[in-house]
Design goal:
- Keywords: DNA-binding, Transcription, Transcription regulation.
- One of its GO terms (molecular function) is transcription cis-regulatory region binding.
- It comes from Alsobacter soli.
- Pfam families: TetR_C_7 (PF14246), TetR_N (PF00440).
- The protein has 12 helices and no strands.
- With 229 residues, it is mainly alpha-helical.
- The chain folds into 2 domains: 47 residues, Orthogonal Bundle (Arc Repressor Mutant, subunit A); 142 residues, Tetracycline Repressor, domain 2.
- The longest helix has 20 residues.
- The chain is elongated.
């Protein structure tokens, strides 16, 4: 059925907020940093307590102490909230962790980095976030990709860049530094991170010694394979 002049006019009548009825208005995004912080903190606590799937937007709003309408002004969905939390964690912790000094002793630098990395993963809420990302990655692959890009992929890129510099200086002999970076980062976590994903973390009194032993062995094995002869 064709639309008459009155219907056409009604579809573009001014609305109370200065827009036009019948035309999709752009989404208004929240701009109050304190309110955004309140929402992110509430969502983080609920995700860790209940898991990503079990936490609804209504429950997140309640935990954060805001209305559901206010929540949607700042975040369109749980996925966006989860990604915001991961980005914040990266800025707060991961960026400070990445301190590979090309001028320092190579072995000591790699050991210090590995210990800091494993401690970061096991002592912060990273393991819980990994569980959440893995649990929803099949159903929402974009969330899994975002988590990987903000964490593991950043670490691989940083380590590969450091190894490139060491190869240029003749300190290491590596054909594929990205592959070598992947291997070293996995070696750091051997017997520590995977068990932690299933709730099997080292006893507190053994934590430092076990991390020291695993990371040192990883670096020595890596250097044995890649030190020029």
């Amino acid at each position: 059925m064709s639309r008459g002049p009155a219907q056409e006019a009604a579809s573009t009548l001014p609305s109370n907020d200065g827009g036009e009825i019948g035309r999709e208005q752009p989404r208004q995004e929240g701009s109050d940093p304190a309110k955004r912080r309140q929402i992110v903190d509430g969502a983080r606590a609920l995700f860790l307590e209940r898991g990503f799937d079990s936490a609804s937007m209504g429950e997140i709003a309640k935990r954060a102490g805001v209305s559901k309408g206010t929540l949607y002004v700042y975040f369109e969905n749980k996925e966006q909230l989860f990604c915001a939390i991961m980005e914040e964690e990266r800025r707060m912790h991961l960026d400070r962790l990445i301190a590979l000094d090309p001028e320092a002793d190579l072995r000591e630098t790699l050991i210090a980095f590995g210990k800091a990395l494993v401690t970061f993963i096991l002592k912060t809420k990273t393991v819980a976030a990994m569980r959440a990302a893995i649990a929803i990655a099949e159903r929402m692959p974009e969330v899994g990709r975002a988590f990987y890009g903000r964490g593991p992929a950043t670490m691989i890129q940083t380590m590969a860049g450091f190894l490139d510099r060491m190869v240029e200086r003749g300190a290491l002999s590596i054909d594929d530094t990205r592959l070598a970076a992947n291997q070293l980062l996995d070696l750091y976590q051997t017997g520590l991170v995977r068990p932690a994903l299933f709730g099997l973390e080292p006893p507190p009194e053994e934590f430092d010694a076990r991390v020291e032993r695993v990371v040192t062995a990883a670096v020595d094995l890596f250097l044995k394979a890649h030190t020029p002869r």
